[in-house]
Amino acid sequence: MPRSALAARLAVVALLISASSVVSPPESASADQGDGLRPITDAQGRTLILRGLNTAGSAKGPSGLPWIERRNVVGERQKLGSNVVRYLVQWKNVEPSPGRYDDRYLDAVAQRVAWYREQGINVVLDMHQDIYGPAACEGSGNGAPAWATFTDGLPCTPQNPWVLTYLQPAVLRAYDNFWNNTGKHPELMRHYAAMWKHVAARFAEDPAVLGYDLMNEPFGGTRQFGFFEGPVLTPFYQRIVTAIRQVDRQKWVFVEPQALGVNEGLGTALGQIRDPRARAALGRLVGQRDRLTATGLARLSDPSSRLVLTAHFYPGGVDIGGGYTGLLKSLVQAEFVLWRKNMTEAARRLNTPLWVGEIGAMAFDQPGAADYTRDWLSMADQLRIGWAYWSNDPQADGSTETIAPLDRTGDLTEVGKIVARPFPRAVAGTPTKIAYNSGTFTLTWRTRPGTSGPTEIWLPATVYPGTPKVTASDRAHRWDPARRVLSVWNDPAHATHTVTVTPS
Length: 504
Hints:
The structure is a single chain. The protein has 504 residues and is α/β, with parallel strands linked by helices. It is 30% helix and 18% strand. The chain is built from 12 helices and 17 strands. The longest helix is centred in the last third of the chain and has 25 residues, at 326-350. The protein is globular, with a radius of gyration of 22 Å. Residues 42-394 form the Glycoside hydrolase family domain. Residues 1-25 form the signal peptide.
């Protein structure tokens, strides 16, 4: 959801006060902030910098399917260089009645996933929910089916702004029953885990599906922060990960902290989640090590789990529609500092990569919108992490689009002209610097053992209309104008690598 945290309007002043001593523009933050974060990797061991769109807010409707056609996916790859999509699905469409799964719905999802596969775009399936589900409050919400919604007869009136609907008695009770805070419905979380196992079994062999985002912006009902994330959300995720690994041991699993407060920069109390895939592999390696010790061949690396911390970033100052100027800009810059500090610390603590599952959603009729967009793009570059922009939904009434990067015809919008920015799709090693300024793009990386294939850098036609000028420490490089991808092969004589690209 584009503006999800109930506390945003209440926490703005508190965030300003708490961060006032560290306020600084995002560009001034240390370029080493991302060091120590584990990478998301592909089959060749390359670091994936996953950048693309959320598809789509329209999928929150009754059908659970987005508005897109194949040509829109082609446009994302050509105009934005997208190498990932966060594709929304809904529990109510997957499991319309208890234990009965709608495989025709999953077939329709698979058809659209194939469009992304054709374009070489990775898919993260996101089990989306807002305000629990449509049965929790008539006229609001998406996600959970009616049969899994227990409001105990409490009332609900949709609110404006819509996020305040989370505080309605029926919605709070629906969440409390799902999380079994009431002690009355332990079966609901079991159903949810079994539903995810079914989805994972359906897509386990689909090469386009990179992974699974287990729940969009979890909300704890009457339990929040440390009373929710540690004792409730963490074991819930563990249950789902364990279920998924019974049918799919390869794909990445994306876990989100609670949205409330964390979206604006507060820390998360999410606990350690164990990947059964990694434990099983470690057991095999330990056995190999014991057998090989006598021969002196016992240097074996511990296998990595495939879990990703997936945080969202919606600063409160932007969230309340005040723009990105003056005092509000200072507030939002404080939230930049808090978010990057707390989320990178959490990813290190949990030993996971960090990915921004939702970011953006600032209408360009707000003052400072262009500067805000450039600043969060620069923050992602400094951290060497990826993101999924919210969202690709163009306005239905045909008016000028101010949020989506592409309109329905596939042309770049005002925000799209900024988001269409050079970036490394895959890095043959560990990236140490990603920087872009006024047409000059610079990437540096270190060689990492076990990595093969070239580093691939996407370059937009809006910045590099002709053949780009390339200066590289590695002589082997090739420009593909059709894909708009610059490929650079590591020189084995060098441990570090640099490439700089400017317009010709």
